[in-house]
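pinned: reference chain
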Amino acid sequence: MKTFIETIKKKLQAWHENRAARLEEARRSRLDAEARKVVQVMEFNGELYVSVHGVPLFDEDAICGDFAVAVNGAREIYKKWKEEKLWESGTTHGSTRC
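pinned: its structure tokens
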């Protein structure tokens, strides 16, 4: 009987760990998708700009180096900012909308 209970405990522990990993991966995927949607490259007055929510922020001349690397960096910064806001509001799961 003792081994049966231990087996059940181990399976429940594994299930909880797997569930937590799935939830974390889903949260990260949602956050990544939102960052890709929010931080974009857009054309404005014939020039390319990095934009957030469709608002141009800086042009290619403002960036030293590769434009795509800078946009990815901006997305990472946005995700970090967003995660901080989610922690502050106590919403670390579910929708990433403020």
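why pinned: The longest helix spans residues 2-38. The beta strands are 39-44, 47-52, 55-59.
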